[in-house]
Amino acid sequence: MSSLRSGINVTIVRSENVQNQYSIYVLQASIAGRKYPLVKRRYSEFVKLWNNLSSLPGGLPTLPGKKMFGKMDSDFVNKRMASLQDALHVLCYLVPAAKSNCFRSFLGLPLFSSSPASISTNMPTSRGTNNIINNSNTINHNNHNHDNHHDNKNSTTTNSTTNNQTLLAAFENHHQSISQQHSSAAAKHGLCSVGMIRHSARLDQVFGCTWSDRTLRPYDTPISDYDLPTRAALKLVSYDFQAVISSPFRRCLQTAAVIANRLGLKVLFVDNRLGEVMHQVKSLIKKQLDVEDQEEDKKKQDDLDEDKTYKTDRTDKTDKIVNTDKADKTKRNQTKKKSENIQDIQARWQYMAVEEAERIAEDSGLLLRWSRNQNKPALDESVQSFVKRCNNATEVIEDAQSTFNVHLLTEELDELGSSIVSIEEDLANARETVARSSEQLLATFCNTLGLGPDAASDRMYEIANEAEQNDLGFTEDVLNMKIPVEVAYFEALATVSPLQRSLKLMHRKQELLRTAVNKQGEDNRWTSACVVTHADLLNQRLQHLEPNALYAPRCCGWFVEDPRTNVVIAMNDLDRIM
Fold first, then answer.
1. For position 272, what pLDDT does the model report?
2. What is residue 25's three-state secondary structure?
3. 3-state DSSP call for residue 457?
4. What percent of the chain lies above the pLDDT cut of 70?
5. Domain 8-185 in CATH: superfamily?
6. So where are the chain's domains?
7. pLDDT at 129 over 70
8. Within 10 A of 115 (CB to CB), how many other CB atoms are there?
9. Which of 100, 337, 355, 474 sees the fewest Cβ atoms within 10 Å?
10. How many CB atoms lie under 10 A from the CB of residue 60?
11. Residue 59: which of 167, 142, 159 has the closest Cα?
């Protein structure tokens, strides 16, 4: 079984003898690696399929002939099965046949809701493949009468197999030639394939799980499964994607980082236009604000209940408390809920910090490229604006390419080198300050406190260890308990530590930039790239490409399209529901 241009693969798994009267052939079809249930077909059903497809342009491969006697002989059945396999193999190359509901039903594949005649067959290689069929002597253009052209001898099956194998070889040679032409054209004119991938499983859909900033950013859940993007990347390797561009949401960034790393890439791009549909973000913020309102109301009610415990039996005091309760209830009803206040909602809406995004990328050995404040969708985004975002993946890829060339990378590398030199100088000065402070502190321990050299050194070590454990975050009260030379030593250490961390991060970024510069050529235009985004964006794009179909993307489900023809090349883990 091999990968065909239409994306459909068919294998005849085995044959079955039915009461020694006829044979049934067990078929299994798959699309982009996803296997569909087994189907059983008799030879007569093959004949019926060929008759139904006989009107397609270019003709069809030949079927093996019938046999009156000895048709249950094992050698004959095996030869016929091999010939049928080759015939199906050739048929899968034909886009008109592959998009025919008749053929798809025969293989047990999901059907198109439109008729075969309404499906465009103007593929770049259709004419070329049809010419091969027309010029081949192995094609019978009147398949509905093909039984009259065969005798009942075993030689018919053998000849049929040889003819179909010859045709298959011609197909493969021609397809390879066309693929090379497309690759050459893509290098000159742009993208040949664009992939769209949904993020991995969400942590907020796992019962009892949470993350550190959930109350502040409930819309930005991490992923719960790192194995899904790893498996998806293994299936995407054959498409040779040269770039991965991610939505700015955490679940997409984490998914994209795994995929980019597995694909052997060195850079992870982020574009805000690939982000979640904004009404979903708004809904999650409102839900969190409602929870906070309920908690605040409950706290106020608890306070009121606590106050009531102090009331006495005196009538005037009771009336005063009742009136106070009514006033509090009226005030709460007049107070506008946070979830209804657009300012409260907007205050909660923000992307993750660039530092966190860089950490996600760097943990996978990737350099992050993200213009955080560009192309931000509005929180009250219109439907037209969202649909436009769903169908501009090519524009997103081209923009990422335009901001990523060897000249820009070299300039950034030079600027980073200058910053590293400056920080190294500051770090050297800070270390000198630490050395002077430690000498003064050691002298104080020995001369003032009367400690010996070993005891003073031990005390110095304890102070340094204490500072490291507290991450130099001592309060003013703690510092007031220290003698002045100890405070000076702490302050000197507090200067060194952040400089060391910054220098380490810069060296890591410098290494990633150098790798990117070495890998990026002067005129290395991308011919294939993929974006990692959300289910709604995949659905909208698929509806644009296949208006009569509706899909439900699974986590890490994906499809690949040819942007020159707007045709879906392959898909995986996309359940068709209509």
1. 94
2. strand
3. helix
4. 70
5. Phox-like domain (3.30.1520.10)
6. 8-185, 193-276+352-405+525-576, 282-346, 409-519
7. no
8. 9
9. 355
10. 22
11. 142
Spatial separation of the C-alpha atoms in residues 354 and 369, rounded to whole Å: 10
Of 184, 174, 186, which is closest to residue 125 (Cα–Cα)? 174
Q: What is the DSSP string of 527-547?
A: SEEEEEE-HHHHHHHHHHH-T
State the angle between helix axes of 354-363 and 484-519 in degrees (0 to 180), rounded to the nearest 10: 60
Neighbours of 329 (CB within 10 A): 13
Residue in the block written with tokens 């085995």? 14
Whether 554 contacts 198, CB under 8 Å: yes
Closest CA to 339 of 282, 279, 378, 281: 282
How does DSSP classify residue 521? -
The per-residue pLDDT for 208 is 83
Task: Provide the token pair at 287.
Answer: 């839900």
Cα–Cα distance, 477 to 250 (Å, whole number)? 39
Name residue 533's beta-bridge partners. 198
Average per-residue pLDDT for the chain: 75
Paired with 24 in beta bridges are: 16, 42
User: What global pTM score does this model have?
Assistant: 0.55
CA–CA dist 303, 500 (Å, integer) = 50
DSSP, res 205? G
CATH code of 193-276+352-405+525-576, in short, is 3.40.50.1240
Among 273, 274, 256, residue whose Cα is nearest residue 265: 256
Structure tokens belonging to residue 33: 């690696």
129 vs 487 pLDDT, higher one? 487
Contacts of residue 404, Cβ cutoff 8 Å, sequence gap at least 6: 243, 267, 269, 369, 516, 520
What pLDDT shows up at residue 546?
85
Of 94, 122, 136, the closest CA to residue 7 belongs to 94
Three-class secondary structure assignment of 50-74: HHHHCCCCCCCCCCCCCCCCCCCCH
Contact between residue 129 and residue 52 where contact means Cβ atoms under 8 Å apart: no
In this prediction, residue 323 carries a pLDDT of: 52
Handedness of CA 110, 115, 121, 122 (dihedral sign): negative
Give the pLDDT of residue 136.
35
